Amino acid sequence: MHITLAALILVTTIGAQTPIAYRIALDPQTLSTFTVSVVVPRDVSGDLRLLLPTWSPRSWRASSWGERVQTAKARDGSGNPIGVTRDGDVLLINGRAPVTVTIQVGQTIQALGVREYFTTQGALLDGTRSLPLVGGAADRPCTIQIDAPEGWEIACPLPQAGSPQRFKATDYAALVDAPIMLGDLSRWKFDLKGVPHELVLDRQGKEGQPTAERLLRSLEGVAKAHESMLGEAPYKQWTLLMVEGVDGERHHRNALTIGVDEGAIGGDIPELILAASISMASTRVAGGARPAALVQADPLKSPKTSILWFTRGWPRWAGRLALLRAEGRPTSWCDDLCDAILRHRNHSLADRLSPAEASRTLAAPWRGLDPSLAGYVLSAALDMTIRDATKAKKSLSDVVRDLILRTDPAIGFTADDLAAAAAAIGGTEVKQFFARHTESTDPIPWDHLFQRAGLHLEWIQWRVADPTLRCTATDGKVLISRLRRRSTLYAAGARIGDTILAVNQRRPKAPLDVDRQIGRMRPGQKLRIDVRRGTKQRSFRVTMSAAHRLRIPLDDDMRVRNLPPGPARDAGLANGDTLLKIDNTRISRERDVRVSAGRIKGSKAALTIIRNGRRRQITVKVPAGVTWRGALTLDPKATPEARGVREAILNGPE
Got the DSSP string for 399-446? Predict the structure, then answer.
């Protein structure tokens, strides 16, 4: 009885905490800055410190935003000014609560984007770049008041607190993980069992009201598929914020900010719908997405691999499954998984097919393997392991659904909770899976897993440069479904939609036959493709070049940063060098390095750089590379048990 009463008193005390009150004031006449004030209530004790976080939502890296604070002033409860001392990213307040601290936030972004912008027509605010944390009060509830310009609407995934301009959050992490959009907004909404799902578009002053009924129906179908797979939504509201004319996306606790093409809202936007489905899955793992430290000393410290794959990869896997189910094509899961595995293996850091090994390289500050891709393939492997261990009676989604029912939605569950729950259902085999592939760096035994799931993955090596040719089968025909404009085949005249009649004079019966023919080729040989376009037949011939690998990480100014060991470093390239050209190809972004590697003739490349203000040229020996292709097919020799696992997967993984 004493324990229960004490717990009740503690909960009552916490519930009675006075919220920390934030306020943002924006003036379109001064786009370079905006004002943030923080009212620290009397019941916050001790020395007062305000810190700008180094954490960003759904990010595995930390960054410092302290330089954005241009001025800082403070007043006590009587309105008298008190001193503020700055120590790096920390503001030391020379007084005790209650105090009001007002800061001018600069370095605003005046170009549209998916993280933050401030224009004369609207704004998108990112809490981690604007709202300071009161030291020792991260768990205290918060409110935020937005003083918007006249005529600007406000959209925010947080619940309102008495007015359309004021919102409340359970704690600081929830506050800064909620993007705020302001301006001339178009809004659409649907409810799923009383839970509102809102779509918001910043029109930036454009005339006319777009329609989004088709997009709304698609997203409602996805939301229903998630409910079928994982149970009722754990959030009270989900918000989609759209910005026209920009690229990119940012996932938040119960919101998604994404760029869309201008005028695309009225039709289907596959990339947006997939991103929204992944976002809806992410809401189920709020606990795993919470940062271990809002402000950490080491901005390059890499999180545990288990956390990395869980927060980034599992939502991608679950989101893709829900989308395929909503579209009525669950059997496409095999093709989707195969594509992910091949892209994972083709990445320069994933030669051994170990997501854990690849994820750990993220401790290095240059770009490593996309953790969502590593986590996607790891989730698929875990799902097959659970199904096999339980004789197809349980799946990874069953484990997650059970955890959702047993945990507080505001807190969520962690990667460790998931590992324990999965091991409890799947036994020793599942427990060993975590030990081998998230805590250690063993490669995933795909062939073994697929065999136990009644599937077979045929691996094909391309020792020539990837012609970016991808095919699909439709009505017994093999069609070109993807072909980059920069490829030699495109330059020769091939186009998406062409029906392939023959590859090197052999008629393909399936897309895999095209991959097999290219896999037999060597550099210098000619590839011939015969196609039909409409009523005409055409032939294209291209000389296949060697596949090369060249890794040179660059910053936005094309300066070499954190160069890994390899041929470029051996040849004399150094951090700080500015890369201008590779052979005759000018480099204006990091992606150009990969494109240039595919154009290298022979085994050497000439790098033109600037070092200490002088232009230099370095010759680099470029190693040969390999591209992996293949297909996931049904295994005709599968055992009855394996066929049972396979049917459970193909009928729509639960």
Answer: HHHHHHHHS-TTT---HHHHHHHHHHHHTHHHHHHHIIIIIS-PPP-H
